[in-house]
Amino acid sequence: KTKNDRSNLPLQICKTKMDRSNLSLQICKTKMDRSNLSLQICKTKNDRSNLTLQICKMKMDRSNLPLQICKMKMDRSNFLQKWGKSNKDVWHMGCGCSKICRQGGLKWSKMPIFAGMKLFYSFLLAGLAFALCPAGLLAQNAKKNYRLVFYESFNQPDGSRPDPEKWMTSRRGTSAWNRWISPSVDVAFISGGKLVLRAIRNASLPGDTARMLTGAVETMGKFAFQYGRIEVKAKTKGHTGNFPAIWLMPQPPAPLHPYGGEIDIFETINDENKAYHTVHTNWTLKLHHTQPKNSFNEKVKVDRWHVYGLEWTPEELVWMVDGKAVGVYRKSKDSEAIAAGQWPFDHPFYLILNQSVGMNGGWAAPPDEHFIYETRFDWVKVYSRE
C-alpha cells in the first residue's frame, strides 16, 4: 500500500529496495506472499514522477529475455479466468494457452486495466505465456528446423482424379490391399476439397473378374522423402471388412519386401475404433523378433477427423495421433541386428493412401459386398528437416 489514493486500487503495492538506475522500467527484488497474487507493483524510494512502471522481479529463472518477468506460485486456472470474460473471449499464442493474448497482439479492450498499465501487462503476459505453455505444445506448433516440402489439399474440381503431377493409381496385385485396385473414378475422386477412396461392388463383371473395386493412390516416382515429418488428416467409415491405410514404402530401386522395410502410419480394420501403427522388416517378418516393439495401437474414433503422423529421424520412428506420440521404434545399436535388417530406414520412401477390404483368413474380415466402404483425406503435409 502506498501513500496514494487507496480508494479503488485494483493492485497491491509492495515495498522494496531497488537499483535506482535510469531504466525506463525498473526491476526490483522482493519477498512477498505469492499465494493469492494477481499482480504486485513495487513501491520504491525513487521519484515516481518519471517512472513509467516498476515491475517486480521475484525468484525466477534469469534467462536472456529482454525483460525478466515474474514467475508466481499461483493457481493458473484462476489467473487465466481473470482475463477472459467468457469462453468466447479466447486469446492464445498458437500454443494452447488460452485467454492470454492473440496471435496478432494483445487485445486490450478485453482487459480490465487502465491505459497507463498497458506496458506492464505486455511484459508480464508475455512472460507468463511462455511459463504456462507446455514445451511440447510449443514444439508441436513451431515445427522448428522443418521445411514444408510436399503439400496436398485436394482442391481439384469435384469428380476429378487427384493431381496427376503428384499421384498415380496403385497397381493391382495379389495382396489383400491391392487385389481389387481399380483406376475407376468411382473409387478414387475429389469431392468438396477431399480425396475420397472407396471399395464398392464390381458392376463390370464378367469383364473385370474382381468381386469389388477399391481405390488406391501413391506418389511412387513422383515424390519420396528420407527423414522428416509427415501428417495426414483422414477419417473412415467403420464396417465389417473395412481395411484402409496410410503407409510408406521404399522408393525403387530398393530391396524387395520386407528387406527394404515398410512403415504403416495408420491402419484400422472392420468396425474397430482403433488406430494401428507398425513397421515391417526382415527382422520382424522373417526372423520374428519382437524387440524393439514394432507395432502399436490405441483407441480412436476413426469416423472423426484425426491427424495421423510420423516423425522419422536417422535413429527412430515416432508415430503420432493429433500431435501426441503413441509409439516409438528405435534403431538398434547392435551391429548384428542392423545386418539382419532391423533398421532399413535410411533411404527415401513414397506414400500410399488406400481403401481396401479384408479377405478370408486375413487380418480384416471378408467384405460386405453390398456396403460402400469409404475413407476421406483432407490434406497431406510432408516436412523435411533443415
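the 2nd protein, sequnce then structure:
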Amino acid sequence: MTILADIGTLGLIATIFFGALALVVAIYFGLVAPSRKQVDNLTKEVKNLTDAFNHWRAVPGDERLRHLLAEQGRRENLAKAAALAREEKHQEAIRYLEACLGPGVSPEDSASIYLLIGNAYLAISQFSEAEAAYKNSLAAAEGIADANDRREATAAALGNLGLVYADRGEMDKARDHHQQALDIHTEAGNRRGEGNQLGNLGNVYADMGELDKALNHHQQALEIDKEIGNRLGQAQDLGNLGIVYAQQGEMGKAREHLQEALAICKEADYRLGQAQALGNLGIVYRQLGELEEALKHHQQALEIDKEIGNRLGQAQDLGGLGLVYRNIGELDKAREHLQEALAIQRGVGDRLGEAKALGNLGIVYRHQGQLDKALQHFQQALSLFQAIGAQREIATTKENIASVKKAIRGQKARRTRKKG
C-alpha cells in the first residue's frame, strides 16, 4: 500500500524573519514642534502598524511609517487597517489601505502602502493578489529619487515576492528574488538585510531539498545576527537550523537548536517566538516518537497563542496536536483537533492552512477506513491547492487521492468476490 504523505508537518510553523527597513525621510509637523504626548502617540501608532503587518515579512521602516501617518485622513485609515489586521480581518484591512492610495501619493508612500497590502494578502494565502501588490510596490520604488531609499524599497518588494513564490512552490523564482534582494543589501552594506535574505534563501534551499546549502545560508545569517546583536534574528536562525537538521534526520541537533531559540525568545519575552519554537519542538518530538513530549509542547504553544490572540498560530498548534493524536492512534481526537484547526483557518481566510487541514483530515479518515470521506477531503484540498498554485502540495495530494482510489477499488473487488 502506498504510504500516505503528511501535508504540512515539519515546515508548518517555520517562519522567516525580516527586520523593518530604514526608508528614512523628513517628517514635517508644521512650524510648532510636536509635544511629547504627540510623539509618544505617533510612536505607538508606528508600532501598531509594524506589529499588524509584519508577520515575518518586510515592512516599511519606522520613519517611512511616521511619514505615512503625518496626513490625518490617511492616519485614520491606517489605524483602522492595523486594528482589523490584528483581529485577522485582513480582507477588510486591505480596503482601508487601498483608501490611502491616490494620484497625489508620492512614490515612496505608494511603495510602502503596496507593501502593506501585499503583506495582508499574503497573510490569507491570496498569493496572486499579494504578488500583484508587491509588483506595484516594486514599480513605485523605481520612481523614488533618493538612491538609498530606492534600493531599500526595491529589496523589500523583491524579498516579499520571494515569499509568495516559495509559498506557491515556485522555488527557482523564490531563490532568484531573494538573491536579488540579498545583492542589494550587500552592496548597500545593510547587514540586517543581508542576514534576513540569507535566512530566506536557507529556507528556499531546504524546501528544494538542498540541505547542505540551507545549513550554510542559515549559519551565515546566524553569524551576521550575532555580529550586529540581533537576538531575535538569532532565535529565528537557530530555529531554521533546527528545522533543517530535523529534515536531515539529526533530531538531537534539531532539538538542541530549537531549545536554544526558545531560550532566547523567553529571555526577550517574545511570546510569538516562544510559541513557534514550542510548536516546532513538538514536531521534532513527534518524529522522535516521544509523543507525550510532543503533546506537551504543542499544548504550551497553543496556550501562548491563545493568550496573545494569534489565531493562525492556534490553528497550527491544533493541527500539530491532531497529528500527534493520529500517531498515538486516538483518531477521534485527531479528527476533532484538525476540524477545529480547519474552522479557524476558514474563519480567518487562510486558504493554504485550510487546504493542509483538509489533507490531514483525509489521512485520518483513511486510517479510520472511511475511504469515501478521505477521498472527499483530499479532493477539496486539491481544489484549494490548485487555486493557490501550491505545486508541492498538489503533487502530494494527487498521490494521496490515487492511493485512496486504489484502496476503494480493492474494497469493491473484495465485496464482489464475497458475493460470488
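The first helix runs from residue 36 to 53. Residues 34 and 387 are 49 Å apart (CA to CA).
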